[in-house]
Design brief:
alpha+beta, Ubiquitin-like (UB roll), Enolase-like, domain 1, four-stranded antiparallel β-sheet, about 30% helix, disordered N terminus
Length: about 525
């Protein structure tokens, strides 16, 4: 991408650490990407632009943030990350890994020894993802092939076939770390504390919930961002410009996952990676689906709250959350009472049309509440109407997690949950259809059923007619046939670049059939059950 002149948009100072030293840049427009700043202002041309939309991983860099006095590392896509979002963080590019004497970091040396590079364009991105794995595993220890494959799913290569790169991921932990290649974490944390606070004229990044909501009330036209995994595309692909940006990710209260007796509350600033880790801890069967939600760099940047607020009809979080009975909490600053006001509504009631919702100009989506296994699904208050109900979070005290209920089909089993993602590529791809189903049985009949669907309507939707065709009926083949017809008739999907309307119509019914077959004990009917080892 050619550099974009920013003189028409007022700018501000950006400060972060690089190689342990502070970097301060002036006149950085609020809508410039981190990739632009690295390549054009700092000359870090090892960081490449491939797709410009967070798909290929050639632009991967690693961020370090001091949390609780410890440095946490995240590999992210710099092409769709706004530069000012790394204010007060440490940034590593591929140029930063080599020692002062020119010796390679183990992540780089392993790629050389395992012949993990051919044309070389994607190599810096792979190296940075490997560096993130190296730091997070305590020096590359204990990385197996499954973890390497999952963590590298956001990096694409057209040459090597991935085998030598996966070999490098496993080998780097056995290589020596040359002097000067390591990270002095204590010194880095200390240096981060000394960075100058940001100037907050055009890129607003409040550190408390109250100040965030006050900023929203004062600047209702500011572009709200979280991980910018979607807004970044508006900048790189649609060439949109933003004179003012409001970033929710620094508000301390929204950076937490809180556990209550009947639900977990995921703050709007919690990354997708952390949010799905919380969901998987409650429901381990979601692990494969969680890893298929984009690549790790996207999950490290994007947030669950941002994904929900964005409301894309092909966003994978919403069908699952709808099936789980999730609700959202919208908050605003009440100037009259000088306090935070809020309302709560079921997630499926958030949307009014294509990328349209009921969030008001002075409101922000602050929490996503997900019922825990065995907990009753929330229902809207009779008096609340579409506007939703309110709830006082101050009186809800976190508790220790409840014992995880087992999954099965016997009497008393709390739920049977499946979520299916259909895409052209198994990893790091956008869904053509996503279908999530959660059901409980009692005496052989469907006691509860909730179904969320994506890719079949203008918004993420709940399949209410199909639920009605199942609820209270015997769970047998005849009931399933009736429900399949209801599901196929409930939506009118469109034809686009990902799939035809006819394909989506057919797949919807097929996925419900799969759900039925899995309930009867059939396992090897989808790619999640496929194993190369089983063929050898």
């Amino acid at each position: 991408m050619l550099g974009r002149m920013s003189t028409e948009i007022s700018a501000q100072t950006l400060s972060f650490l690089r190689r342990g030293q502070p970097v301060t840049l002036h006149n950085v427009a609020p809508d410039r990407t981190l990739l632009e700043v690295l390549r054009e202002d700092l000359g870090c041309t090892g960081t490449k632009e491939g797709c410009g939309e967070g798909d290929c991983g050639a632009c991967t860099v690693v961020l370090g943030e001091a949390i609780g006095g410890q440095l946490q590392y995240k590999a992210i896509n710099s092409c769709i990350r706004l530069a000012h979002s790394v204010q007060g963080m440490a940034v590593w590019t591929t140029e930063d890994l080599v020692s002062p004497q020119g010796e390679l970091h183990p992540a780089q040396e392993a790629m050389v020894q395992c012949h993990g590079s051919q044309c070389g364009f994607c190599t810096p991105g792979f190296v940075m993802s490997l560096f993130g794995m190296y730091q997070n595993s305590g020096g590359g220890q204990g990385i197996d092939r499954a973890q390497a494959s999952a963590d590298l799913s956001g990096n694409l290569c057209r040459c090597t076939g991935y085998r030598p790169i996966l070999d490098a991921a496993q080998q780097m932990g056995s290589l020596p770390l040359p002097p000067g290649c390591g990270v002095n974490e204590a010194a880095t944390v200390a240096a981060l504390k000394k960075l100058a606070p940001p100037h907050t004229e055009n890129y607003l990044r409040p550190t408390t919930l109250a100040s965030l909501l006050q900023a929203r009330a004062a600047h209702p036209k500011a572009q709200v961002v979280a991980g910018t995994t979607d807004v970044g595309l508006w900048v790189t692909k649609m060439h949109k410009r933003f004179t003012q940006v409001l970033d929710v990710t620094a508000a301390e209260e929204l950076r937490r996952v809180e556990t209550y007796p009947h639900h977990i509350a995921i703050g709007a600033a919690v990354s997708l990676h952390e949010a799905y880790a919380a969901l998987v801890s409650e429901r381990p069967q979601l692990k494969t689906f969680a890893q298929r939600f984009a690549g790790l760099p996207v999950r490290n940047s994007g947030t669950l709250g941002g994904n929900v607020a964005n409301g894309s009809p092909i966003g994978d979080s919403m069908p699952l959350l709808i099936a789980l009975g999730a609700s959202v909490v919208l908050m605003r600053w009440d100037a009259k009472h000088q306090a935070v006001a809020h309302r709560e509504l079921l997630l499926e009631d958030l949307y009014t049309g294509y990328r349209a919702n009921v969030i008001k100009a002075d409101e922000l989506l602050c929490w996503v509440k997900v019922p825990r296994p065995g907990a009753p699904s929330p229902q809207p208050s009779p008096a609340s109407g579409r506007g939703g109900k309110t709830r006082d979070f101050a009186n809800e005290v976190p508790s220790l997690p409840l014992p995880l209920a087992g999954e099965g089909w016997g009497e008393g089993s709390p739920e049977f949950l499946r979520v299916y993602k259909i895409s052209k590529r198994f990893d790091d791809d956008i869904s053509a259809v996503c279908l999530a189903m959660r059901m409980t049985l009692e005496r052989g009949k469907v006691k509860t059923i909730s179904i969320g669907a994506g890719g079949v309507a203008a918004t993420p939707v709940r399949a209410r007619q199909t639920e009605a065709a199942l609820l209270g009926h015997a769970w047998n083949a005849d009931t399933v046939v009736t429900a399949i017809a209801a599901l196929r008739g409930e939506f009118k999907p469109i034809t686009d670049m990902r799939a035809s309307a006819a394909y989506r119509h057919t797949v919807l019914g097929n996925l419900l059939q799969r759900f039925w077959l899995e309930s009867q004990g059939l396992q090897a009917i989808n790619l999640e059950s496929f194993s190369m080892e089983a063929l050898t």
